[in-house]
Design a protein that fits this description.
Length: 397
């Protein structure tokens, strides 16, 4: 009973079939000039073409990386270093939301601690959604302070990895484009769930991952709009337009292209089925665990269809329930769910996302994320929910 599809997804059998030739016979280096190398180069170009089509980009705007975390790091570090080299305005100013993935939020906090950037956090509301009006006010205040020329980057995730809220990235993108500000989107949790378009979203940089879309782990993409100035973070043989040196992982790149193509093709049908499961799961938990606390915006147009998030931190008797104990108990019964982001696995700490939407420290420590995907059935989900309800009530006692 796997219910953690936002952490990772199983490798699709069709994707594995596409990858197999490049794990065995077609093992050439895409930089080589002889036949084996050119077969790999052809596969690389084909994958780049497929992925660019999935997000409405141009072929040469796709840069392959080792993960979406690397793509986020390349986007932020690369952009900041480029800005430092070309601007005489002072320390770069970066605007991000306070619910970004750790690969964005922690990186920016680190760069701030090293005096590399001035960081401005755009806060979300209690529903977990960024206010475009607040963003406009921040830009207005920065302009009044004479700092507008120092804005090196704005970064906003399209879909939050913990509570599934869909951010107004197209509106933010239009504002950034109008003001000549480089805009980065972390679209890892968006692709395959909502329409993902660099044209519609008006972004200059966008990060994607394969393993969130039934592809292989260890491969990601950074979209870099033509004309966007960036500095490479891995220097070497000049692969990937010199943005990311190193021999390309052809098998995984082929797998990513196949996975993204299939996910986009089946997106609308999958989301119709996921919404039915989402409504059922939310109503089931609220009925059987009356002291549960729903996290994030209500089900509808501003939340992806495969995500529910509840806190079970307190009961009507004031008894705290340990989220870690709940997960361990469920794991022994074969049910896989998570506390917040999978990238924080092994750390029992409060969710910065739940704290950002106004939850208490205890509530933020026990936010349970349940996400479903291909293969999740109504019957299987109900069986898992029964085990969750029973485990919560056992811990309550």
């Amino acid at each position: 009973m796997y219910l953690d599809f936002s952490a990772t997804t199983p490798l699709d059998s069709d994707v594995l079939e596409e990858m197999m030739p490049y794990l065995t016979g077609h093992f050439g280096n895409a930089s080589a000039l002889y036949g084996q190398g050119q077969k790999a180069k052809k596969a690389l170009d084909s994958a780049r073409f497929v992925i660019s089509g999935c997000i409405d980009a141009h072929l040469d705007e796709i840069i392959f990386t080792g993960s979406a975390t690397e793509a986020n790091n390349l986007a932020i570090r690369g952009r900041i270093e480029s800005f430092e080299q070309s601007s005489m305005c002072g320390i770069p100013l970066v605007i991000i939301t306070n619910i970004e993935h750790a690969s964005v939020l922690e990186l920016c906090k680190y760069l701030e601690s090293q005096k590399k950037i001035e960081l401005v956090l755009l806060k979300v509301g209690s529903d977990g959604i960024v206010s475009v009006e607040d963003f406009k006010k921040i830009l207005s205040n920065i302009e009044k302070e004479g700092k507008k020329e120092r804005i090196a980057l704005v970064s906003c995730m399209a879909v939050n990895n913990e509570i599934g809220t869909i951010q107004p990235v197209s509106r933010i993108g239009r504002i950034c484009r109008k003001n000549g500000i480089v805009f980065h989107i972390d679209a890892v949790q968006a692709f395959g769930k909502i329409k993902t378009s660099v044209v519609d979203w008006k972004c200059d940089l966008m990060s994607l991952s394969a393993h969130k879309c039934y592809g292989p782990k260890g491969v990601g993409v950074l979209y870099v709009k033509e004309g966007t100035e960036m500095v490479s973070q891995i220097v070497g043989g000049g692969q990937e337009r010199s943005y990311r040196a190193g021999t390309e992982n052809i098998a995984s790149i082929v797998g990513m292209a196949a996975a993204l193509k299939k996910s986009e093709k089946e997106r609308e049908l999958n989301q119709v089925e996921n919404e039915k499961l989402q409504i059922f799961a939310k109503e089931y938990i609220e009925k059987h665990i009356p002291f549960s606390l729903w996290n994030g915006v209500e089900i509808g147009d501003f939340r992806v269809k495969n995500n529910i998030n509840f806190s079970f931190s307190h009961t009507e008797k004031g008894v705290n329930i340990s989220g870690e104990s709940l997960l361990m108990r469920l794991d022994l019964q074969g049910v896989s769910i998570s506390l917040g982001s999978a990238c924080s696995a092994g750390m029992v700490s409060e969710s910065h996302v739940l704290r950002a939407i106004g939850r208490t420290s205890q509530e933020a420590k026990t936010g349970v994320r349940i996400t479903f995907g291909r293969g999740t059935t109504r019957l299987g989900l109900e069986e898992a929910l029964q085990k969750i309800v029973k485990a919560v009530h056992v811990l309550k006692k």
